[in-house]
Amino acid sequence: MLTSPTKIQPTSLPKILILGATGPTGRHIVSQAVARGYDVTALVRSPDKAADLIGARIIVGDARDEVALRRAVKGRDTVISALGTPASPFRDVTLLSTVTRALISAMKAEGVGRLVAITGIGAGDSAGHGGFLFDNLIFPLLLRKVYADKNRQELIIKESALDWTIVRPSILNSKAGGKTVRALTNLDTFHGGSISRADVATFVLDQVTSDRWLHNTPLISW
Questions:
Q1: How far apart are CA 44 and CA 17, in angstroms?
Q2: Closest CA to 84 of 160, 179, 18
Q3: What pTM, to 2 d.p., does this model score?
Q4: What CATH architecture is 15-221?
Q5: Sign of CA dihedral 204, 209, 215, 218
Q6: Which terminus of the chain faces fewer neighbouring Cβ atoms within 10 Å, N or C?
Q7: Distance between CA atoms of residues 51 and 3, nearest Å
Q8: 209 to each of 10, 60, 100, 152, 200, how far by Cα in Å?
């Protein structure tokens, strides 16, 4: 069960960079961060898709490009990665690990030490805990190559020496947020579950000012 996070008392409101800001979860992160009064920057490839990200500073660039990442991360104190990639039954996936490797290099070059990254249920030791349909049909048929790259992404983060938290949401939905969220690292009795993107965004943003899950990989679910 999620306990009250230990709060880090910042000297000023957080300055965050969001990757994946135009995705369905990323949009919730942007809007909630702006509502909290955070100083928000988003690195996006398409300015048209970012036109409705009200309150965020938009930098246009490719997240695989370390030069663009350094420009975006400069002056930030935390990076949130909400990057995702479509299902890929046949072709290998490398986007997440490629971006993460470039991101960590850019963060170190610019002296930014805090990273909160979203992966998903099925990554690392959460594999096999998604419920019958996810574990036996969706994962092996559609997501196996995506999750191979998520595993590479997680390993890169864990070996980075940054202050990191990896958040693994259970099956995502678009329902309203505000429900009680469980954060688990012991998954012995957990199988299945779902959570709204809005509640994922809330949990992720809570980690910006909390060390409750520092250097850990909580799975979050309703």
A1: 11
A2: 18
A3: 0.92
A4: 3-Layer(aba) Sandwich (3.40)
A5: negative
A6: N
A7: 37
A8: 7, 27, 22, 26, 15
